[in-house]
Specification:
The chain has a domain of about 130 residues: Jelly Rolls, CATH 2.60.120. It is built from two helices and 14 strands; from the N terminus they run E-E-E-E-E-E-E-E-E-E-H-H-E-E-E-E. The strands form four sheets. Strands 2, 3, 4, 6, 7 and 9 form a six-stranded antiparallel sheet that branches. The chain has a four-stranded antiparallel sheet with strand order 1-10-5-8, with no helix packed on it. A two-stranded antiparallel sheet has the order 11-14. The chain is extended, with a radius of gyration of 30 Å. It is about 10% helix and about 35% strand. Strand 6 and strand 7 form a beta hairpin. It is mostly beta strands. The longest helix has 15 residues. This is Nicolin 1, tubulin polyglutamylase complex subunit.
Length: about 210
């Protein structure tokens, strides 16, 4: 599925003074990063990517416009997602992370603002944040690939003689196998297609790149 990068404005980090352990230097253990989308209408969020920097747990809240007659409301869509299995060790401290909409706790449609809540309970790390933050929305859907109508349901005049005998049982063979079988039989029955790739150069070379017998 395609995705499109959404232009956004990442506001400065705000340190919360309550709710978590402080480090020995007096730094708070909870940070908040607000993200706005000034040039984009409310959209369906598809994916969030970033590089972690010593953040142990991540929560995400989104502001959604449910309808034109009601004010936008904040909803928690991810709660205490673990980025570092052990906050006192460096495992996962500087890894790239991708979060998709199916991992969220709520519907990600009509998002107008985003709030990241970062938590690091360990006093070992003097600073923590997320870097290279990027937000994606769902891109245009690609047209479905289907077999041509003439291959799936050939008209009687297009069916080769051999196609009338030994037709696979539709209840036992998938439609894809039937279509490939039909194509093979049509190539077999066609004299002009029986020797694909044959060509002569000055009467010296005769290459059979593909032949059906």
């Amino acid at each position: 599925m395609s995705r499109v990068l959404v232009p956004c404005h990442v506001k400065g980090t705000v340190a919360l003074q309550v709710g978590d352990v402080r480090t020995s230097q007096g730094r708070p253990g909870v940070l908040v990063i607000d993200v706005t989308f000034p040039s984009v209408a409310p959209f369906e969020l598809q994916e969030i990517t970033f590089k972690n920097y010593y953040t142990a747990f991540l929560s995400i809240r989104v502001r959604q416009h449910t309808s034109a007659h009601t004010p936008a409301k904040w909803v928690t869509c991810l709660r205490d997602y673990c980025l570092m299995p052990d906050p006192h060790s460096e495992e996962g401290a500087q890894e790239y992370v991708s979060l998709f909409k199916h991992q969220m706790l709520c519907d990600m449609a009509r998002v107008s603002e985003l709030r990241l809540i970062l938590r690091q309970p360990s006093p070992l790390w003097l600073s923590f944040t997320v870097e290279e933050l990027q937000i994606y929305q769902q891109g245009p859907k690609s047209p479905s690939m289907t077999f041509p109508k003439w291959l799936s349901h050939p008209v009687p005049c297009e069916q080769p003689a051999l196609l009338c005998e030994g037709l696979p049982d539709p209840s036992r063979v998938s439609s894809e196998v039937q279509q490939m079988w039909a194509l093979t039989e049509m190539i077999r029955a066609s004299h002009t297609s029986a020797r694909i790739g044959r060509f002569d150069v000055d009467g010296c070379y005769d290459l059979n790149l593909l032949s059906y017998t």
